[in-house]
Amino acid sequence: MGLAVCGSVADTGRLSRDYVKSLGLTGGASTILGSSMKTAARTAKARIDWLDYPSLSLIRRVTVGQTSRGVPYTSEGMAIRGDRVFLLPEDSPSRLFQFSFVTPAVQVKK
């Protein structure tokens, strides 16, 4: 997924890298999957962003917490199906977390 979105060959690569830069998340020792960009490990708030394509303008943002092991829920794998999000945040031993989304009271305006 990272290569499909942020890779140098992907049409969305430049847009995705520009978006990460606009958040001020560049610099550090951790590589952003699918790119040569670096970021600080786990310093930003863990969030799930819904972006409009192709402009990548923010449609919705959900800030998420951490597991009982102190790992942000968004550290590893994620899948969305309907109103449910499945998160696989940890390395071995791994756990699968499932959450249901509710319609937010306030949405980010375009």
Overview of the structural elements:
The chain is α+β, with helices and mostly antiparallel strands and 110 residues long. It is 14% helix and 26% strand. It has two helices and seven strands. The strands form three sheets. A three-stranded antiparallel sheet has the order 5-6-7, with no helix packed on it. Strands 1-2 form a two-stranded antiparallel sheet. A two-stranded antiparallel ribbon has the order 3-4. The model has no long low-confidence stretch (mean pLDDT 75).
Task: Explain the layout of strands and helices.
Elements: H1 2-6, H2 13-22, E1 30-31, E2 38-39, E3 47-51, E4 58-63, E5 77-81, E6 84-88, E7 97-100
Antiparallel strand pairs: 1-2, 3-4, 5-6, 6-7
Shape: globular
Helix content: 10-25%
Number of distinct beta strands = 7
Strand proportion, as a percent range, falls in 25-35%
Relevant terms:
110 residues, alpha+beta, three-stranded antiparallel β-sheet, two-stranded antiparallel sheet, 2 helices
Task: Compose a concise summary of this entry.
With 110 residues, the protein is of the alpha+beta class. It has two helices and seven strands, in the order ααβββββββ.
